[in-house]
Each structure stands twice: as structure tokens, then as C-alpha cells.
Design a protein that fits this description.
With 394 residues, this protein is α/β, with parallel strands linked by helices. 30% of the residues lie in helices and 27% in strands. It contains nine helices and 14 strands. Strands 1, 2, 3, 4, 5, 6, 7, 8, 9, 10, 11, 12, 13 and 14 form a 14-stranded mixed β-sheet that branches. Helix 8 links the parallel strand 12 and strand 13. The structure holds zinc ion (ZN). Zinc ion (ZN) binds next to helix 6.
Length: 394
């Protein structure tokens, strides 16, 4: 047991401290990919690096001046750079956007238009028409830049996160909306540094295969947002995956297992998920069960095990197994996360995340505060041991 928590702590250390942030397409993301592949191989598993195209985006400072004062501003992730001085138009509703003439102007979007993040234009899993319309109208009207006023009063939480959007975009915290409305000049100055470089990324897939048999897919994403060590999100899940590869090498199981270190959950267009699904759709050995581990092992509260499309008898078995793992318990369904990419197949699915992670989402997750100190390695040991038993008994 001690040896196992030691191994898990080592994995967390490597991914979250030695490598740190690992956005899809970046050099550190490739380092994480190589590390995961090497651990899988060391445990004797056949390993595939499933490659795809993406961007290596580097964003720098953003400055916004209006009426001679600076307003704290952040560049939207994946945005193009800009240096503009132009008049601006405040838009709060879809109707106002439909009617606006934005040529040569900066569009300041707030109110109804920015009450939630807008899906990237080429995102296919879920993209409502009112999001598509906003993007379409902006591209038609081609403002010099877009400033979005976040739904969050205190934090500039991004509205656009879209490497395919060809208009530079910035974000300010909600509390600054008044400053635009009260401005005495009609013009502002926005400067942002950034670079979009074409790059590559890869999922790392380890197989313990029995040809022709349906498989259990266990996945955890290893990429992060820029600027976060991504310990809970999701070095923790990857550590569980690597621990599983160790358990499988020590005590092989008779069934087929695919361990998928997914790359792109925190990247705007989910390219790793798309690449995986494309191959998955064509693969003859279908999955009988999908297990996703994202945000497990938070030292506060328990790690929750939720199910989707699972027969009642199977859920009861899981519940019984959990009696041996006090850090875990059955939990309410969880509809976010990578496992939802399998929704069209309606596969039995187990999603594992920390029950108390939700209060961390605005302040800690995706920030520099998501560090290994938040994680209890013993919880991860139990998570891996539980998943191992589920696989073994399939
Ligand atoms: Zn995540």
C-alpha cells in the first residue's frame, strides 16, 4: 500500500510539479505525453501515440485604456493579438448585435450576450444556435476587436475560448461594465500580445488486448489550461491511470482494457477526443464499459463514483465493492467531462470526480492554485484499486 501511494505521489510530482502546465500543443504537453508513454511501456503494455493537429498558443499581456485610465483586462485564451485605437459600441442583446454596424469599431459585449461562455465555432459536441449566431454575426460585422464583459463580477472568466475565431478578443471582470457605459470618450485603446503556432498533440493509449473481445475503456485527460499546474485537474486522474497500468502488470486480467490518456479536454476544440472517437467509431472491438477519472482525490470530502446507462444490478455490485474503499462512495450523476463524448453510443459509463470539487471551480481549478497539496494520494490508491476490481470482474 505504501509503495502504491509512493508511486502515485511520484506521478503527481512529475506531471504537476516537474512538468507543470501542459496545454495541448505546447512543449510541456509533449513532455507529459512522453512521460505517460514511458510509464505504460515500463509496465509492459502495448502503447500507441494517437496524433492530431492543434495550435500552440502563447498569450501575453493585455492593456486596455479608456478616458486615460487603464482597465484590468485579460486576453481571451487562443485569441489573435491586436493593437487598436478605435471607437466602441456596447452591445447587450442579440437584437442589438443584429442591427449594429461594427466596421472600424471595437465591440463591447455584455448583458445577455455574455451571461455564459460561448462555444467555439467549430465545436461539434454541443453548440446551441444562439451561440452560433453570435459568432456568425461577429464574423460578418468584423469589428477590429471584441471586449467581452464576464458574467463573473470579480474574475475575468473567458467568454470566448476559440482558436478558430479570427477577431482578437479580450475579457474584463463584470464589475467594469459600468466604466464603459459611463465613458466620456467614445474611443478606447486595446493592445494584446499573442501567437498562434501550428502544432501537434497526441493521446497516449495503452492496451492490454484480447482480440475480438469487447473492452473496458479507462480514461483521464492529461492536458491543462495555460498557467495551471493542473494537479486535481487532472494529474490526479492520470496518476490513477498509471497506477492501473502498474496493477495490470502485477496482476494481469483476462479481459481487454484500454487505458487512454486523453489530450485536449481543456483545449478549445477537444482535438484529442475527436481523434479518439474517429478511431473508436471504426474499431470492431467495441467498449462494454467506459470509466472516466477527472478531478478525483481531493483531500476534502469523498471521491464520488457516478454512473450513466448502467444496469441496476451492476450499480448494486459497484456499491458493494465500494464498501472496501472508504475514500469513495456512490454519487449523483455528473454530465460534464470527457465521458460525455460517448453519449451517442449510450454505453455504460462510470465517472469519478471529487464530491467537493464544485466549490473550487471558479477560484482554484484552471488557476495556479490547483496544486498537489490538494490531493490525498491514498484516495487515488483506493480509486485505482476500485477501478482495477471493476475491470477484473467484467
Ligand atoms: Zn478536467
Amino acid at each position: 500500500m505504501k509503495e502504491d501511494t509512493g508511486f502515485l505521489a511520484e506521478c503527481l510530482q512529475e506531471l504537476s510539479v516537474m512538468i507543470g502546465e501542459r496545454p495541448t500543443g505546447s512543449a510541456s504537453n509533449r513532455r507529459a505525453e512522453q512521460y505517460i508513454g514511458s510509464v505504460f511501456k515500463a509496465h509492459g503494455l502495448e502503447t500507441e501515440h494517437q496524433a492530431f493537429d492543434c495550435l500552440d498558443w502563447e498569450g501575453g499581456s493585455a492593456t486596455l485604456r479608456m478616458d486615460g485610465v487603464s482597465i484590468p483586462t485579460a486576453i481571451s485564451p487562443y485569441s489573435l493579438p491586436c493593437a487598436v485605437t478605435a471607437p466602441f459600441t456596447i452591445l447587450e442583446t442579440p437584437e442589438a448585435l443584429r442591427e449594429a454596424n461594427l466596421s472600424g469599431r471595437v465591440a463591447v459585449l455584455g448583458g445577455e450576450l455574455t451571461k455564459e461562455a460561448i462555444m467555439p465555432k467549430n465545436f461539434t459536441f454541443w453548440n446551441p444556435e444562439h451561440h452560433r449566431e453570435v459568432v456568425r454575426l461577429l464574423e460578418e460585422k468584423a469589428p477590429e476587436a471584441i471586449i467581452t464583459v464576464s458574467f463573473s463580477k470579480e474574475h475575468p472568466l473567458p467568454i470566448f475560448e476559440d482558436g478558430d475565431l479570427m477577431i482578437p478578443s479580450a475579457v474584463v471582470a463584470g464589475k467594469y461594465f459600468e466604466a464603459f457605459k459611463a465613458a466620456t470618450t467614445q474611443s478606447l485603446e486595446l493592445q494584446m500580445r499573442a501567437e498562434r503556432r501550428p502544432s501537434k498533440g497526441a493521446n497516449v493509449i495503452a492496451r492490454n488486448g484480447v482480440p475480438g473481445k469487447t473492452k473496458v475503456v479507462v480514461m483521464a485527460h492529461f492536458d491543462t489550461k495555460p498557467g495551471t499546474p493542473g494537479a486535481l485537474d487532472n494529474a490526479a486522474g492520470v496518476a490513477v491511470l498509471l497506477q492501473l497500468s502498474k496493477l495490470l502488470s502485477e496482476n494481469p486480467v483476462s479481459g481487454s482494457v484500454e487505458l487512454v490518456a486523453m489530450n485536449g479536454e481543456d483545449y478549445f476544440s477537444n482535438p484529442g477526443q475527436m481523434a479518439y472517437l474517429e478511431a473508436f467509431g471504426k474499431s470492431p472491438d467495441q467498449a462494454s464499459l467506459v470509466i472516466n477519472c477527472d478531478g478525483a482525490g481531493y483531500k476534502v470530502g469523498k471521491t464520488g463514483v457516478s454512473t450513466l446507462n448502467c444496469p441496476e444490478g451492476f450499480v448494486r455490485q459497484l456499491d458493494q465493492k465500494l464498501e472496501a474503499f472508504p475514500a469513495l462512495r456512490m454519487s449523483a450523476p455528473w454530465y460534464q467531462g470527457d465521458h460525455m463524448i460517448f453519449a451517442p453510443w449510450e454505453l455504460p459509463t462510470i465517472a469519478i470526480t471529487s464530491e467537493e470539487i464544485f466549490p473550487l471551480i471558479d477560484e482554484v481549478i484552471h488557476t495556479e492554485k490547483d496544486t498537489v497539496e490538494l490531493i490525498n494520494a491514498e484516495y487515488l490508491r483506493q480509486t485505482a484499486a476500485f477501478i482495477y476490481e471493476v475491470i477484473r470482474d467484467q
